[in-house]
Amino acid sequence: AELFRTQFLARRREVARQILEEGRARGEVADPDDLDFLAELIFALLWYRILSRHAPLNRRFADQLTTTVLELARA
Q: N or C: which end of the chain has fewer CB within 10 A?
């Protein structure tokens, strides 16, 4: 579990945070203090879909997730 958190998840969260940082540089993300929270939100929704298998991980989901995160990031 420790390796999963510190290596697998940490690397992926860092990539998400870098993407959000790039969005902040373009003016798409308002508050830099929210970047870690937004990265966690992205992974929370992804893992929920993966683990529950209640709905697909598809383009529609990716678009909805992106739109929602950007709306929250601008707030």
A: N
Taking CA atoms, 4 is separated from 1, 7, 11, 44, 54, in Å, by: 5, 6, 10, 15, 24
pTM listed for this prediction: 0.75
Cβ atoms of 13 and 39 within 8 Å: the answer is yes
Q: What is the pLDDT of residue 31?
A: 73
Q: How many Cβ atoms from other residues are within 10 Å of residue 24's Cβ? A: 16
As a residue count, the chain comes to: 75
Question: Are the beta carbons of 13 and 32 closer than 8 angstroms?
Answer: no
Task: Give the separation between CA 16 and CA 5, rounded to whole angstroms.
Answer: 15
The answer to whether 44 touches 51, Cβ cutoff 8 Å, is no
